[in-house]
């Protein structure tokens, strides 16, 4: 195991072992492999606005939306963290915990939260989720949250708007990477969570473009026609195509 320690952060992750150093993965390659869909997100410990945090222990049996922002006390980030905080009850309904991260100081996070609450007047009660302080940028590197231009400048590099959805088994299920100029859409985050959880539950469907809960889902091609009545007793629609191939089969029976 390779343990990297910084101020307030301990990262524990597996590393390849070889007598020939030329076969070792670079940090960049390790980060990319780490954060691919289906990979296991490594555990880490860090300081946050809600105290010391051990990621796996904190996650428990919940889903997690782990997201980074470029900097505290900036306008777009204020709107993002504010709107996500306002929507926290919707995430709770879906068994999802929220975790923000940037390379700012912990005290800056704490002070900035007051500004976010002042700007977004509809945040009820205490700020609902922790913000991790990653001053050393160790986590930002491990989680592949730095853009290409800044990744080699550890003193000034800021995190991009990376967002990862992690299932209770610590698997990376979805990633969204936005540039610093573009704020994220909370409704889209909720939509993809609904899709992931539905497809995990049924395992024989996928959600089409722009799908929202209640609308038709697509039945996967490997499902045989003779299986459809038992799987979807309320019915399946089959779409005729010019090719003559029947591969678009939809249902609202879920």
Automatic annotation (TrEMBL):
CDD domains: PRX_1cys. Keywords: Antioxidant, Oxidoreductase, Peroxidase, Redox-active center. SUPFAM superfamilies: Thioredoxin-like. Thiol-specific peroxidase that catalyzes the reduction of hydrogen peroxide and organic hydroperoxides to water and alcohols, respectively. Plays a role in cell protection against oxidative stress by detoxifying peroxides. InterPro entries: AhpC/TSA (IPR000866), Peroxiredoxin_C (IPR019479), PRX_1cys (IPR045020), Thioredoxin-like_sf (IPR036249), Thioredoxin_domain (IPR013766). It comes from Homalodisca liturata. This is 1-Cys peroxiredoxin. GO terms for cellular component: cytosol; mitochondrion. One of its GO terms (biological process) is cell redox homeostasis. It catalyses: a hydroperoxide + [protein]-dithiol = [protein]-disulfide + an alcohol + H2O.
């Amino acid at each position: 195991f390779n343990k990297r320690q910084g101020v307030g952060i301990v990262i524990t992750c597996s590393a390849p072992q070889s007598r020939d150093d030329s076969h070792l993965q670079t940090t960049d390659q390790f980060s990319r492999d780490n954060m691919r869909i289906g990979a296991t997100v490594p555990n880490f410990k860090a300081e946050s606005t809600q105290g010391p945090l051990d990621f796996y222990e904190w996650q428990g049996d919940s889903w997690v939306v782990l997201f980074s922002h470029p900097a505290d006390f900036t306008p777009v980030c204020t709107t993002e963290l504010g709107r996500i905080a306002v929507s926290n009850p919707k995430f709770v309904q879906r068994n999802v915990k929220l975790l923000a991260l940037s390379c700012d100081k912990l005290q800056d996070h704490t002070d900035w939260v007051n500004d976010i609450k002042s700007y977004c007047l509809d945040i009820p009660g205490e700020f609902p989720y922790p913000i991790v302080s990653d001053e050393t940028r160790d986590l930002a590197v491990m989680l592949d949250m730095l853009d290409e231009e800044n990744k080699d400048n550890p003193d000034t590099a800021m995190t991009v708007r990376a967002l990862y959805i992690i299932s209770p088994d610590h698997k990376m299920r979805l990633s969204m990477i936005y540039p610093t100029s573009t704020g994220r859409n909370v409704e889209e985050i909720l939509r993809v969570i609904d899709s992931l959880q539905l497809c995990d539950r049924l395992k024989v469907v996928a959600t089409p473009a722009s799908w929202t809960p209640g609308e038709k889902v697509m039945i996967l091609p490997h499902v045989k026609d003779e299986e459809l009545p038992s799987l979807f007793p309320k019915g399946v629609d089959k779409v005729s195509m010019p090719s003559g191939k029947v591969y678009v089969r939809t249902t609202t029976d879920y």
